[in-house]
Amino acid sequence: MADLQDELHPPAEVGGLPQLLGAVPELCASGSDPDADLLERARALLAAHPVADGYSGLPWALRHLPWFDLEVGESAVDTDVPRLREGHVGALMWSLHLPEGLDGDRAVGATLEQLDLVKTVVRNHPEGLRLVRTAGQTTDARNCGRAAVLLGPAGAAALGDSLGILRSLHALGLRALTLSGVSWASAAGLTRFGEEVLREMNRLGVLADLSGASDATVRRTLAVSKAPVLFSRSAARALRPHPANLPDDLLAELGAAKGLCMVPLTAEQTGPTVRDVADHLDHVRAVAGAECVGLSGTYDAGTAHPQELGDASCYPHLVAELLRRGWDEADLALLTWGNVQRLLRESDFTAKAAQQRRPPSTAKIAELDG
């Protein structure tokens, strides 16, 4: 029912923003510190439109801790419930990616173990976390004061070249799969079996994550997919020549396809300061459009973070920098919350339509690529 309500009524991130934040300047008018004023405005905006974080490495990080309590706080990781609340994070995608070198049955088994760990962690922290699948459930969790946890992205190796395993992972809650690192999604692009995997993902409602995919795979996915795609950890290559960052021509194609580029808060991909991250957000918005840019904390993924963005509590500092640059409230609401909600809704609509047109695929990699 929540999904139906989301569609019958325009989401808050698009409508009503001027009224919501129109009074904020009054709150800050008497302040003598412009930086403090901007930070207060940022917190006010995030209270209404929290962050939907596109990538968290927390599941793998937790595997190495003998004991933890995310609701009280956990100093051994970058993410816990108190910091999620301080950073106004309303939803986050928990990565099921695996270390390099795991493939075949080992990759399938390790991914299932990750899924089991995530469900155990969420179950043991009911006051702070809630496992969700849809845009409506995500909003419901936020309204109940919980951070919504979405499963994925997982690595393509987790499928073991089996569409049956893809369906099983989806039944367990998987929402995104990264199309790279396998024979059917390689530097040469998608094979015939790879295209069939993508069609089955569309039918199920599993989002295609293209961060780290080859340019050939990206372009073929954009051509074949009926659902919008995302880049869970990609910034602008024009500003920083990292291989996972996107050149302007692909950003433009992504904008035309109404996909989503989620800019990571990592020093390696975006730069050492919060201003560098804001530069990438400015660039992606200018090239792809305001509806196609999002945020990816990439916390607990083993990467260094820019100054002032060291953990999940720091999002207000980034939003304050964007306010300083003149971002309006409507675009900021899309950046933090609205664009991820749109992607989830459109993926589910595509899946419902596809399920009426085609049964589950029985294709085998040996039949199509052998």
How does the SSE layout of this entry go?
Elements: H1 2-8, H2 17-21, H3 24-29, H4 34-48, E1 51-56, H5 58-62, H6 81-86, E2 89-94, H7 104-123, E3 129-131, H8 135-143, E4 147-151, E5 154-155, H9 163-171, E6 176-178, E7 185-186, E8 189-190, H10 192-204, E9 207-209, H11 215-224, E10 230-231, H12 248-256, E11 260-264, H13 267-270, H14 274-288, E12 293-296, H15 315-324, H16 329-357, H17 365-369
Parallel strand pairs: 1-2, 2-4, 3-4, 5-6, 6-9, 10-11, 11-12
Antiparallel strand pairs: 7-8
Describe this structure in words.
This protein has 370 residues and is α/β, with parallel strands linked by helices. It has one domain (2-369): TIM Barrel (Alpha-Beta Barrel), CATH 3.20.20. The protein is 48% helix and 12% strand. It is built from 17 helices and twelve strands. The protein has helices at residues 2-8, 17-21, 24-29, 34-48, 58-62, 81-86, 104-123, 135-143, 163-171, 192-204, 215-224, 248-256, 267-270, 274-288, 315-324, 329-357, 365-369, and strands at residues 51-56, 89-94, 129-131, 147-151, 154-155, 176-178, 185-186, 189-190, 207-209, 230-231, 260-264, 293-296. The strands form four sheets. The chain has a four-stranded parallel beta sheet with strand order 1-2-4-3, sandwiched between helices. Strands 5-6-9 form a three-stranded parallel beta sheet, with helices on one face. A three-stranded parallel beta sheet has the order 10-11-12. The longest helix has 29 residues, at 329-357. The chain is globular, with a radius of gyration of 20 Å. The relative contact order is 0.15. Residues 350-370 are annotated as: Disordered. This is Dipeptidase. InterPro entries: Metal_Hydrolase, Pept_M19.
